[in-house]
C-alpha cells in the first residue's frame, strides 16, 4: 500500500530544465545590467601640451576609475532612465532670483541667478553660465544639484530657462527654443557681463545645451571675451548625422526618440494659443495645418520639420540641422574646451564621437573625455545599489573649472613677473 502512494521520481531531465531556465535568467540579467563590463578611468583624447599636462595633474577624476553603482550602474539605459525619471537623489533646493529679458522679437527670456556660497579657490569673481538639456530649466533636479555644488565651490551660477520650458511662464511671441538658437543664451551672458563687469565666465552646457553653448562661442570671437573655458556634456554635435541613428532600434534609440517627441508635443501644445492662435502673427512658414501634423508626430525629426525649423524660416530640415548644429563652429573656439560623453550613452551613437575625437587631435585647447559608463547625463556613483546625491559629472565639471582658473592665474602671475623683470632691466 505504501509503495502505491509513493510519488514517482521526476526524470533527471526536469532538473536540467530548471537549471537551464535559471542560467538563462542569470545570463539575461548579466547582459542587461552589463555586469561583466570593467570599471576604468575615462579614455582621454588630447594633444601633448602644457595645458593638458596641467589638467592631468590638477584633475584627479580624469585619471581615476569612474566606479558606478555595482548592481545597475554599468547599464547606460538604467543610468539614463534614472536621470530622466528621478533626476538626482536627495536634490538640494538652491535659492536664486529669476531675471526677465525682453528679446527683440517680443519673446520673454528668463534665467535664474544664484550667488556663490563660499569664496572661490583663487579668490576671483567667477560666474558659471549654464545651458540645460532639451526642454529643461533651472528647476530640474540635476541642474539644482549641480548649481548647489558649484555655489559651494565659490561660483555664481546663471541658468537659462529654455523658452517655453517653464510651465508657469507664458510665451509672449510665436517662438520657442530650438536645437541651436543662441539668442536667449547670448542675452543672459550679456546681462552677466554688464551687471558684473569684473566677473569671468565658465560656460557649461548639458546635452542640447552643449550644442547651444559651443555654437554660441564659435559664432563670433567677441562671444569668447572674458570666457575662461567651456564644458559640454553628452551632446551629439551634429543633428544631421544623428537623425538617421535616432530612427534605429539598436540601443532602443527609436523608443527614446518617441518619448522625447511626446514630451515636446506636450510642451508645444501647452503653448498652442501663443503659437497657433488666430490673433497671432505666425512665422512666415508656419501654418495651421502644421498643428494637425504635430498631433500625429512620433519622432523629434517630424516635429522639427513641421514646426521647429519654421520658427527661424529654414526651408528644409536638412538646412535647419546643418545651420543649428555646433559641428561647423567647434574649430572657431579658442578657449579651453572639455567635451564629455559616455561610451554607453543610448542617445548618442558611437559614430558621432568621431567629431570630438577628430577635433581633439587638431586643437590644443580641446580635451575629449570618454568614460565607459554614465548613460545620458547619469554618471551616478555609489557602492552597490543606492547612488550618491552628487555625480561624477558634477564633480568633474567643477574640478576642471577650478583647474582652468588656477591655470589662468598662474599665467597672469608669470606675465606680471616677466613685466617686472623687463622694467628692472
Automatic annotation (TrEMBL):
It is found in: Cell membrane. It catalyses: 2-(5Z,8Z,11Z,14Z-eicosatetraenoyl)-glycerol + H2O = glycerol + (5Z,8Z,11Z,14Z)-eicosatetraenoate + H(+); hexadecanoate ester + H2O = an aliphatic alcohol + hexadecanoate + H(+); an acetyl ester + H2O = an aliphatic alcohol + acetate + H(+); a butanoate ester + H2O = an aliphatic alcohol + butanoate + H(+). One of its GO terms (cellular component) is sperm flagellum. PROSITE patterns: UPF0017. GO terms for biological process: acylglycerol catabolic process; medium-chain fatty acid biosynthetic process; medium-chain fatty acid catabolic process; sperm capacitation; steroid hormone receptor signaling pathway. GO terms for molecular function: acetylesterase activity; monoacylglycerol lipase activity. Residues 127-382 form the AB hydrolase-1 domain. The keyword Lipid metabolism applies. It is a single-pass type II membrane protein. The keyword Lipid metabolism applies. It comes from the Eukaryota. Keywords: Cell membrane, Glycoprotein, Hydrolase, Lipid degradation, Lipid metabolism, Membrane, Serine esterase, Signal-anchor, Transmembrane, Transmembrane helix. Its EC number is 3.1.1.23, 3.1.1.6, 3.1.1.79. The active site is at residues 207, 345, 376. Pfam families: Abhydrolase_1 (PF00561). Belongs to the AB hydrolase superfamily. AB hydrolase 4 family. This is Monoacylglycerol lipase ABHD2. It comes from Orycteropus afer afer.
